[in-house]
Amino acid sequence: MQFWNKIKSFEETNNDVKEYGYSSVPILVGKTKKKLIITKRNAQGKSSPFIYDIDLNSFELVLKKEKPILNIGSEGHFDEDGVMPVCSINLNNKIYLYYIGWNLSISVPFRNSIGLAISDDDGETFYKPYKGPLLDRSIHDPCFVASCCVIEDDGVFKMWYLSCDSWESVSGKMHHKYNIKYSYSYDSINWIREGKIAIDYLWKNEYAISVPRVIKEENLYKMWYSYRGRNEIETYRIGYAESFDGIKWIRKDDEIIMDVSVKGWDSEMICYPFVFDYKSKRYMLYNGNGYGKTGFGLAILEK
Predict the structure, then answer these.
(1) 152: closest CA among 245, 90, 220, 85?
(2) Could you give the CA distance from residue 122 to residue 210 in angstroms, rounded to a whole number?
(3) How many CB atoms are closer than 10 A to CB 247?
(4) Distances in Å between the alpha carbon of 83 and those of 50, 137, 146, 148?
(5) How far is Cα 184 from Cα 98, in angstroms, rounded to an integer?
(6) pLDDT tens, 148-196?
(7) Residue 33 reports pLDDT greater than 80
(8) Which of 80, 85, 132, 225 would bridge with 99, disulfide CB 3.0–4.6 Å?
(9) Backbone dihedral region of 142: left (phi > 0), alpha (psi from -120 to 50 degrees) or beta?
(10) pLDDT value of position 171
(11) pLDDT (tens digit, 9 = 90+) per residue, 3-31?
(12) How far apart are CA 241 and CA 96, in angstroms?
C-alpha cells in the first residue's frame, strides 16, 4: 500500500501572475537548479507555461519571469489555442520539454497534439524546434493525443500518452473517452505507434485516464495517473499500476491511500500526479479542484 501524506498546498491566490486563474501540470526541470513549470489559463481559457525556482528543502516558489516561457502558436497551427508542458527529459546537455498543443474545434470542444520545446541553458529559456507536432491523431489514435510521459530506457525512448478513442453526446454535452497507450522512439523525435494500450478502462463507468507518470525501479515499471468514472464518481482520482515490460500493466488503484480532503481546495478532485525523489524520499505534486483551478499540492510517501 502507498500512504501519501499531504504536506503542503500551493493554493491559487492570483497574486503572482495577474489575470491568470488556473495552475496545471506542474513539472520539475533542470540539472543543477530545480525549476517548476506551471501552466496557467487566462480569461479566454488559453494556457501558457510559467517558470518558477523551487527550493526543494522548504518547497518555496519564486516566479522567475512575468512572461510565459513558450508562446502559443500562430493561427492555423496545432498549438494556436494554448501550450501546456507535461514532461521533460535531459538529453545531450539539453532539456527536451514535451507539451500539449491546444486547438479549439467545432463539432467537439477541442483537439490536442503533442509538441516539443528545447532548452540549452538549463531551463532558463525554451524554443520550439518544429512548427508542427511530434504526435497527432493517427490510425491508432482517431480523435486526439495529449498528456504524456517520456523516459530513456536502455537506449530506447519510451512514451506513455493519452489517446482519445471517441466522443459522444451525453445530456447535450460532448463527452470524450480516452486511455493510455504506449509508443517508442530511437531518437526522441520520431515515434513508432502500434496501438498498444498500456492502461485500459477498468471500472464500469470509467471514461478518462490521463497524465501518466512512469518510474523504473529494479526492472519494475511504476505508473501513477489520473482516472475518473469509478463508482459514479465523475471527478478525477489518482491511480497506480505496475509492469515488467512497460507495455502490459496491472492496475492497482486501491494501493493508493490518498483521497480528496473533507473541505478546501482539493475536496472535489485530486489529479495530474507528478512523482519525484529527493534526498531518499518520494514526493508527489498533484492538482486540486477544477483540474487545478484552486491550486496544487505536495504529498510525501510514508514508508
Answers:
(1) 90
(2) 28
(3) 16
(4) 11, 17, 11, 14
(5) 14
(6) 999 999 999 999 999 999 999 988 889 899 999 999 999 999 999 999 9
(7) no
(8) 85
(9) alpha
(10) 84
(11) 999 999 988 655 444 444 445 556 788 76
(12) 26
Q: What is the pLDDT of residue 17?
A: 43
Query: Nearest to residue 59, comparing CAs of 88, 89, 28, 30?
Result: 28
Average pLDDT, stretch 240-254?
98
Question: Taking Cα atoms as reference points, which of 163, 136, 158, 7 lies closest to residue 87?
Answer: 158
Sheet holding 271-278, edge to edge: 256-257, 2-11, 295-302, 281-287, 271-278
Task: DSSP for 77-132, please give it.
Answer: STTTTBEEEEEEEEETTEEEEEEEEEEE-SSSSEEEEEEEEEESSTTS--B-S-SS
What type of residue is 161? Y
pLDDT single digits (tens) 83-100: 999 999 999 999 999 999
Cell 510521459 belongs to residue: 149
Q: Which residues are within 8 A (CB) of 193 and not within 5 positions of it... i.e. 6 or more apart?
A: 135, 138, 140, 141, 181, 183
CA distance readout (Å), 234 to 76, 80, 206: 33, 29, 9
Residue with cell 522548504: 58
Contact criterion met (CB below 8 Å) for 196 and 182:
yes
Q: What is the pLDDT of residue 25?
A: 57
* Cβ contacts of 102 within 8 Å, gap of 6 or more: 46, 47, 79, 80, 81, 82, 83, 84, 110, 112
pTM attached to this predicted model? 0.94
Q: Cα separation of 123 and 210, whole Å? A: 25
Cβ atoms of residues 103 and 132 within 8 Å: no
Alpha carbons 198 and 185: distance in angstroms, whole number = 16
Instruction: Give, in degrees to the nearest 5, the angle at Cα 81 between 269 and 77.
Output: 135
pLDDT band with cut points at 50, 70 and 90 for residue 141: very high
The Cα–Cα gap between 182 and 205 comes to 23
CA proximity to 233, closest of 199, 209, 268? 268
